[in-house]
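Reviewer 2 asked us to include a model.

Predict the structure of this chain.
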Amino acid sequence: MKTGEQTESFVLCDFHTHLLPETDDGSRSCDESREMLRIMREQGVQRVILTPHYYAWREYPEAFLERRTKAVKKLKTVLSSDDPILHIGAEVAYFPGIGHSDEIEKLCIGGTDCLLLEMPFERWHEEQFEDIETLIRRGLTVVIAHIERYPEGKKRKIRNRLRALGAHLQCNAGFFLSGATFRHARKWLAHGEISFIGSDCHRSDTRTPNLGELWHLSLKPKERERVSHLFRQTERLLCNAKTIDDIV
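Predicted model (structure tokens):
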């Protein structure tokens, strides 16, 4: 599949981005966001979820949502008609007691029940697994962000435990694109451990959008079909999800 091409069976959906301007350590301006969208268009990306960082110890959800809405309105002023469809969500950093938070649903993706959850980068404790289980029992679809980046997430027993709880695992496209981790990415893909793929892009010059680059890899036919399945899965999730056009 060449850059910019699509097949009839799926479209490229970027599950994890920091494209929303001036909201976190991602895009620094609307101009940079526009450049990132241009890169995405050239790669054939057709749907994008905007997932700015949310840290409970920095602000309350209402303050974050207000700040996010202002950024969305600014971004809408520079969009073009051929840009990808944009959905809004958050990358929610884990905090103790998140399982019982009354406002956590407000941070789900586009009015769905899907929550992108960033875990700590140090050792995980039993309380954290209990919180994840509580969120799932509440009816949320919990997706663990960039599972391959955590020291704990690299342990197969941890990944198995998360999946046994009903959590889904998201990995970054860079996991496949790096020669140092490509073998592990293929193995996790073959074992059905990955549910969603995102670029986790932050800037137009570093950590750039790279989802389309997956199709230049030497993947076997079965591996390519598995990746296609992940994009179809994201598309189904977003089928009834709100877009930024619903923000006025």
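The first strand starts at residue 12 and ends at 17. Helices lie at 30-43, 61-76, 126-137, 156-165, 173-177, 182-190, 221-238. We have added this to the supplementary material.
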